[in-house]
Amino acid sequence: MGGFPCQDYSVAKTLNQAHGLVGQKGVLWWEIERLLRLKRPAFAFLENVDRLLKSPSRQRGRDFAVMLASLAHLGYEVEWRVVNAADYGFPQKRRRVYIVARRLRSGVEPEGVLYRDGVLARALPVDPGPLLLGLHPYFSLDGDLAELSERFGATQGATPFRNAGFMSDRKVWTLDLEPAHDGQRRTLGDVLERPEDVPDEYYIPEHQLRSWIYLKGAKREQRHHKGSGTPYFYVEGPIPFPDRTDQPSRTILTGEGGSTPSRFKHIIQTPDGRYRRLTPRELERVNGFPDDWTATGMSDGRRAFMMGNALVVGIVERIGRELISEIRPASTEAPKAAAS
User: Fold this and answer.
1) pLDDT of 131 above 70
2) Rounded Cα distance, 249 and 267, in Å
């Protein structure tokens, strides 16, 4: 499994800072490609932020097209899904794209892979929806990697890649799939610690409250560029304050730690009316880790950073189980009787 750095694709970057495959960290994709070329494993399991499917801003979808074509060149077929962990009962709204590459097979039906038979479809069931008779039309990733990099997405404006898809022999079938779930969903409130177990330092001092409210509120303010002094209007929408505990949490970010007021950190209101931040243990629970998984001697701020960088482990576990069933199918068979 590989989770190559996402910063060059992340929505935390402004569009003119998101450089994709040529960014300082995005280029690490080519290290993954090199390892696959050298080792040729039967499967590769990758993840990234969902913005990968529409990166970079000036050629929407180009980076993912280059990745798919390079995997096809190495003899792999690929399935992918954008998954919000909350849609499968986990207590966090965390969207990531999961990518499973496997050695190319013949006679595979794309519709079956996407709806029923693929590793991702089995791990994370989808609403059957209307059958699409082979998902035609598909589109092809034509040209070598340099040509794709130059041309793909240069004219269409929007990415052609939907939230799910399958690529085989450079042919791409893609569509938006709806998650199927049993209606049972965990919320932020389900993972909170008992009030008596929360250290005092996590409660917001009265004198800081105004700063928290301002940072999380909607804004339309005239500001000035630092260099030129040119005036402009800064506009942003509101962030919930306090965070609702009857729903899955917002996505945990790497800047969650520390007591400094912030727009993006989670703040909840306690039964006694006070406000507080989330503890490292609660952040672990939101991602599905055991309590104190990160209690290795690092600071609480660093523990929060680790959880901002983490995946919802229950999603990975479900995909991992299906991959194991593909890699070791014989392990589920009854042992043969020994010859007498």
Assistant:
1) no
2) 11
List b or e across 160-181, with b for residues whose CB sees 16 or more CB atoms inside 10 angstroms.
bbebbbbbbebebbbbebeeee
Q: What is the per-residue pLDDT across 249-285, written as a single tens digit (0 to 9) for each?
A: 999 999 999 999 999 999 999 999 999 999 999 999 9
Question: Is 6 an active-site residue?
Answer: yes
Domain match, 208 and 161 both: no
Judgement on whether residues 213 and 300 belong to the same structural domain of the protein: yes
The angle subtended at Cα 129 by Cα 125 and Cα 131, nearest 5°, is 110
Domain closes at, from 175, 209, 239 = 175
pLDDT band at 22 (very low <50, low <70, confident <90, very high): low
Q: Is residue 5 part of a domain?
A: no
Task: Identify the active-site residue in 2, 4, 6, 11.
Answer: 6
Tell whether pTM > 0.85.
yes
Q: Is residue 150 a part of any domain in this protein?
A: yes
User: Which pLDDT score is estimated for 181?
Assistant: 80
Answer whether residue 317 is part of any domain: no
Question: Do 253 and 12 meet the contact criterion of CB atoms below 8 Å apart?
Answer: yes
Query: What's the structural domain count of the chain?
Result: 2
Q: What is the CATH number of the domain that holds 142?
A: 3.40.50
Cβ atoms of 166 and 118 closer than 8 Å = yes
- The parent domain of residue 113 ranges over 15-175
| Lookup: tokens for 166 | 């399958």
Q: Which residue has the tokens 């059958």?
A: 131
Residue 157: its pLDDT value, please?
84
* 240 and 274 both lie in a single domain: yes
Residue 320 lies in a domain: no
Task: Report the candidate in 314, 255, 270 with the shortest Cα–Cα distance to residue 288.
Answer: 314
Q: Higher model confidence: residue 277 or residue 133?
A: 277
